[in-house]
Design goal:
By secondary structure, the protein is mostly helical. It has four helices and no strands. The chain has one domain. The longest helix is centred in the middle third of the chain and has 25 residues.
Length: 107
């Protein structure tokens, strides 16, 4: 689980390739666990953490969108109220095999 989380930071500037569904959700789960632990320590740590992960989180979401064969611009759905729900449902879709964004990820 934490390998996918570390990969999220290693590939923080990569907005052009793909991330598998498994890697995305494992990184998401690890991030949720870290936020939970930080919330018990101090709520201000949560805000600092969210500022640190905003770019890596955007990158992994865009790569996940590429994996299902849609443009990363769909990430902008986060800025409309119902868009958060729509985007999260889209992130659940199964990969469509090789597409214009590269070969299908291994896992």
């Amino acid at each position: 689980m934490f390998r996918a989380y570390i990969d999220m930071f290693i590939n923080f500037a990569d907005f052009s390739t793909r991330t598998s569904r498994r890697d995305y959700w494992l990184a998401f789960l690890a991030s949720c666990l870290i936020i939970t632990v930080l919330a018990f320590i101090s709520p201000s740590f949560v805000y600092v953490y969210l500022l640190i992960v905003v770019i890596p989180d955007a990158a992994i979401k865009v790569r996940r969108l590429h994996d299902i064969g849609v443009s990363g611009w769909w990430y902008l759905l986060l800025f409309i109220p119902i868009g958060v729900l729509i985007l999260n449902v889209m992130l659940l879709f199964v990969s469509d095999g090789d597409n214009e964004y590269g070969p299908k990820p291994n896992n």
